[in-house]
Each structure stands twice: as C-alpha cells, then as structure tokens.
Amino acid sequence: MSSTDRSIRRVARPWRISAHSRANAFPYMLVAPVVLLIVGLVAYPFLYAIYVAFTNRMVGNDGEWVGLANFRHLAQTATFLSAARNTIVIVLVSDVVKLALGLGLALLVNRNIPGRGFFRAFLMLPWAMPAFVAFLTWRVLYQPIGGGINLILTETGIYPHIVDWLGQTPTALPAVIMASVWRGFPFWFVSILAALQSIPKELYEAARVDGANAWQRFRDVTLPGIRQVLVITTLLSSIWTANGFEHVWLLTQGGPSDGTMVFPVLAYFGMQTQRIGEAAAVSVAMLPAMIVLVLMATFLMQKDDD
User: Fold this and answer.
1) Nearest CA to 248 among 269, 277, 219?
2) What's the pLDDT band for 118 if we cut at 50, 70, 90?
3) Which of 69, 194, 237, 252 has the greatest count of CB atoms below 10 A from its CB?
4) Where does the sequence pass through the membrane (predicted)?
C-alpha cells in the first residue's frame, strides 16, 4: 500500500474521544444540569431585574432605556429616603438585640441546668411559627383597644394611658423592631448554641488551670470559637431582615407617614402602581449594601482561616 493510500485511510478514520477525555468530561456532565438550573432560575432573573431598573417599563409596556433616571427620581423622593433610613435602623438595632438575646440564652442553655431540653424547644417556637401567623398575633397584641400589651400596662398600673403602638410615628418603628426580634432571635440562639457545643471542653479546663476568670475564658476561648458562626449568622440575618416584607406589611404597611417604610414594601407599592422600572430600581438600590456585607463576611472568614 502506497503512502498516499495510508494517508487517505488515516484521514477517513472516524473521530473518537479517548477514554481519558471521557473520564475528565464526566464530572462536568454531571454538574451541567445544576449549572443550567441555577442560571435559569437565579442568574437570568437577577440580571433581567437589573436591566429593567434602567428602563421605564410598566405593565403592558416594555418601556425604553432611561439610564439612571429611575434612581435619580427615587433619590429625590422623601419616601425613598425614609425607606433607606428605616431599613438601616431596623437591621442594625434588631441584629444587636438578636445577638444579645441569642448569645445570652445560648450561654445559659449550654450549661447543665434542669429542663434545658424543654427550654431549647420552647425558644425555637417563634422561629418555627409561620411569619404570617406570628406578625398577625403581634398586630393583635399592639391594638390600642383590647390589645394584650395595653391591657398589661393599664391593669398593672405601669402606664395608665392607652398607646396606639402602630398608629403613631414615635412607637411604630420600635414596635416593628420588637416583633422582628421576637421572630428572628431563635436563629441566632440555635446557631450560637451549636458553635458553643463544638468548642472542646479541654480548652476551658486549661484556661481554669492558668487562672483565667469567667470573662477571660469567654474572651479567649468562647469568642474565638464562635467567631465564624457569628459572622455568618450576622450576614444571613442582615440580608433576611433587609429583604423582609411580612413584618412591616402585616403590622403597619409602611406607615404612619412612612415611619416604617422599608425597601421591600416600597418596591411592592411600585408594583401596585404598575411602574415596574421604578420597583426594580428600588430592589437594585439595595445591592451595594448586600455586596458590602458579603465582602466583609468573606474577608473576616478568610482572615480567621489564615
């Protein structure tokens, strides 16, 4: 056979994937459906919402590209500024109170006290209860006539006057924060408790042998042991609280006089008025704060690992 015939046969030979290439490609084939699902359900709606925020789209109208017009309009409205201020206040205050309650109760339950199993289950009830039921219950408690809080205050003589907790600006935001804290602190409690139980007991014994008092043991053993859990819990709680809708809508619907207005409720009002572009702009305006939180948490966790 001539060299020309051999070259023709070599070219005509069907193309095949080697066994090594198939073995390398197999993991990517397994992951591909999940990646496509994430792109379809997460990435595409996320990027499309960002695009809509730069248009004047309305229901039934695709709208046109308007650039930063929606954001300039929102920045000039008092409602948007109130939503930004209230969202920051709710997140900061509620996270601090949740941290104090969750850490204090976790330290208490982590000790060998009678009935701590029942105590643990009891503290998880607010988080296990549906948010709709929980906040409607708080709305009943806040009622000026017949509400449980006013009844307790007047009957015990602590405060003899009726207070419209949700109907006046000075008390509406603290009332929303209190209900949000009650609903969310069990997540902090169970996360911190799990972290406390993972700290080796030998570290506390070694600290006692070295003469460390209770505060020094907490500072040098407990805090380093639960630091990463605190960072992750703070990040998740901040994101959930900032994006929370039920606690404000079911209690005050953003009132009175925008005293409890937050970004999710403002975006919902934008959808009700069919201004989809402005509603998307409200949601996109929250992204920088969320990105900062994620970057801070990532930096702190990486620092601990190093």
Assistant:
1) 269
2) confident
3) 252
4) 25-51, 88-109, 121-141, 172-196, 279-301
Distance CA 11, CA 115 (A): 80
Contacts of 126 (CB under 8 A, 6+ apart): 134, 182, 183, 184, 185, 186
Q: What is the pLDDT of residue 83?
A: 92
Question: Does residue 212 surpass a pLDDT of 60?
Answer: yes
163 vs 160: CA distance, rounded Å: 9
Q: What's the rounded Cα separation, in Å, for the pair 149 and 164?
A: 10
Q: Nearest to residue 66, comparing CAs of 278, 272, 267? A: 278
- State yes or no: pLDDT of 30 exceeds 70: yes
pLDDT at 12: 46
pLDDT of residue 188: 95
Specify burial of residue 291 (Cβ count, 10 A radius: 0-12, 13-18, 19+).
exposed
